[in-house]
Sequence to fold (642 residues):
Amino acid sequence: MIQTSNLTKIFEDKKRGKITAVDNITFSCKAGEVFGLLGLNGAGKTTTLRLLATSLKPTSGTASVSGFDIVKEPQRVKEKIGFLTGDTGLYARLTAEETITYFARLYGLHNSDLEKRKTEIIKLLDMEDFKKGQVDKLSLGQKQKVSIARTVIHNPPVLILDEPTARLDVISARNIVEFIKEAKRAGKCIIFSTHIMHEAAKLCDVIAIIHKGKILEAGTLPQFQEKYKIQELDDIFVKIVEEKR
Amino acid sequence: MNLKKVKIVFFKEMLDILRDRRTIISMLLVPLLVFPILTMGFTSLILSQAKKAEKQTHKIALLQEQNAPGLTEIIKKIPTLELVKIPSDSIQSAINNKTIRAAIKFPENLETKLQNEENDSVLIYYDQTEMKSAIVYTKLKELLKTYADSVTDLRLLKRKIDRKLLSPLKIKAENVASPKKVGGFFISMFLPYILVLLALQGGMYPAIDLTAGEKERGTLETILVSPLSRLEISLGKFFAVLTATVVTAILGTTSMTVSSLLGIAKGGEMQAAFSMSPEAGLVILVLMLPLCCFFAGILLAIALLAKSYKEAQSYLTPLMFLVIFPAMISFMPGFELSTKVAFIPIVSTVMGIKEALLGNFHWGKIWITFVSNCVFASFGIIVAKRAFEKESVIFRV
Fold:
């Protein structure tokens, strides 16, 4: 579903010169798998996800999402992904329903198909009570549900989640965790970035530790535990990062 | 490019814009209310103040009144003038601090000289910048003129000369300008300037809201990962900003035209009417539409550079000045739409509209202006599209 190949992104900064945000990374993620990018702030997680979502263009290397190349077929890639961040990124002056309708139309849903899918999502996420509410009047949890609805309205096979729980309260964060588990059960390919270790340990099938734009190591939690003889993921993470410094 | 998607973005942006209080104020309320308040309110205020000042009693001082006892008596009988004693060396300060509104200085032995058929002059002190002082000055001047005329009449009578002999040729003037032309002249000076200014101002807040505002709220990234090309996003936003500029310009123009004419009519000094010929309307449309496109593109591109609403406002303020100054050319007398001028953006549009409102249609130059405006409009759209394609601009947070 996702396959990166020597993906690299270099930014030009007038003051700091060239900054390699993503440095030659290669990994893959299958359908029904949760792939976690674990790293500190500024490690290159967001840039990697933006490259996969095609909002940034790679300096070199490439990746494919659902069989489409991110450089050559960005439009097709965008049709196959649902992108969600912790920052809800919603239009404050639109209602929850208008938001869902807007994105559904952008993804090519119209008339009865649109209404059917909208009703389905509203029911699934229990949004009936606040669907007519203007987004800026909604609670954080309700906003998060609108965000999820917007992300999955077109039923994408790939989900790209950039620190989806970072700015959320405990209840809202739990909604997201449940959403990820449900998406995995539905066979979706999920890549998500986080710096919250217990979340990664709980959700990820494969964890990639990213530091200064490079993937230092990738594997399952048991593989890490076996290799480093350490149980806790945060201890494993610190050890790997320290070793590579 | 999928036009359906551009339409979806456009309608969503319009919905968003129309629910934003700031945009509603700048796009609808400002153009609708500013002109009636400014023109009619201002005219009414000045007129009522002037009428009030006419009826009020004003204090004046006479210097060396012993030289003109007859004239002094006449002045004393005028009910709206009150004589006060002021030393001659403090006349200026008395007028400045409004103790008196004006003063007359009679020369040595004025009335004796006049009786002896000698001539002399009278000095009136007043403050031109003060409305009440100016009103009193006009009154005194009229009074002294009437007095001088009566002295002339006496001298002529003594010589048995008919007064008519002194004025062999009477000069009469008749203003042939129709009320429509009077209105047209006034409107032709203000309307092009206001049109251009409002078009820019109307698009400013929507442009900021749809770019820097979205960056601030985190929604820009959401739209970037939707199945839209950068061209579709920029065009959807562009048409929304363009709509705002056009709507503001139309509302402002209508409001200004109506309230200006009512304001002039209320002034009572001249009769004014205004009707726009279909050709003039066509010229306004043909010249303003590409200019609005240029504004919409430039506004979007500049506002997109900013990372916050406030920053975008500070970026766009200089642009306002860059537009105001060339637009002010419509107030300049004698400046005409030449072939060279037709290539200068804003100036050409303003002059083209001004001439059209006066009934002068230089179609060749209007055509050049249209083409050059279209070039600038394309430039505006390209700049906006490029800005949306630039990662360093989009992700500048």
Notes: Strands of chain B lie at 58-63, 81-84, 102-105, 123-126.
